Each structure stands twice: as C-alpha cells, then as structure tokens.
Amino acid sequence: MDKMKIVFATANTHKIEELKAIAENYGTDDVEFILPPEGFNPDETGLTFEENSLIKAKEANRLTGMMSLADDSGLCVEALNGEPGIHSARFAETAQARIDKLLKLLENKENRKAKFVCAMTLVNEKGDVIFTTRGECSGKIAYEMSGTNGFGYDPIFIIENIGLTMAEISEDEKNKISHRARALNKVLDFVKKF
Fold it and tell me: What is the Cβ-side half-sphere exposure of residue 8, based on CA atoms within 13 angstroms?
C-alpha cells in the first residue's frame, strides 16, 4: 500500500521529526509527513490556536494542492489568564528571555497551574476542513529551570502526575504524553479510516 502523504504546515524541520516519532509510537508507518515548499510563512492572525492552525493548513494546501495538516500550540498559564497562549513563541525575543519573563510574571503567584495546548486542523486536497482536534498536557510552572532535553518552555513545565519537567524526560517519553502527541494520535485515528 502506498503511504498517505500529508503536508505538515511548518517551516520547522524539528517538528517533522517529532511527528514521525509520534507516528512510530502510535504504531503506523502508513503516513508520510512532508514539509511545504520554501517560503511557507503565513500570517498567523487568528485569535485562537484553532484559528491559527486553520490559517496554516489552508496556506500549505494552497501551495501544494495536497492534504495538509497544521498545528498551533502554546503554553497557557492559569494565573496569567491563559497567557502567553497563542503568543507563546513571540512572548519575548529568545527562548531564555521567554522563560525569564514568565518566571518574573509568576514571582508572587501561588497558582502555578499551566497546560500545553496543541490544536490541529486537517484539510483535504480541495482545502476543505475534514478534521480538527486539540491535545492538552497539564502541569505547573516550576520556580526554576531543570533538565536539558526539549525546547521552549520545557525546562520550567512540570508534568502532572510525573513530577518532572518536560526537559527532564526523554524525547521518547515526551512523544507519548505531550500535547502534540495527544492531538496527533487523534488525527491518526481519523486518517486510518481512509
């Protein structure tokens, strides 16, 4: 059987590797994720993760005419009314600056509850939405950084029921429990019916 090719709407090659690893954990090799062409850089003007993932999926489909999947994800902190949320990647200039800013904002806050959220949108060759889903990973924000794996906010996100930061667990473990894994597994459940 030919592999189903799905364009994954990102310019980030690390994300493609992560998706492949999640699909392997899921137990499928029927799907091949490929990058959109050079110059993929849609304007993420949505007000929610879902809206931004739709914008990206539609743009990847417009450029390729292929089935396209997009995600939009971020960190939502309860005490900050869900911020940085959709602004997670643009919260400050660098990954370290984003962590420092977040820890500063939470300095005098008792409530450290947070969750990583990932919304995914799948469109068919015509650009019609055929599936949307959301994955979440709950936890809390640590008082200081810990761990060397992962990227972004991983070193300060303590995973619920595990007690370690996302940066203290292996990539393999992360690909089983992350918000992106939870969302992608639902997408794979859906496409396996094709």
Answer: 23
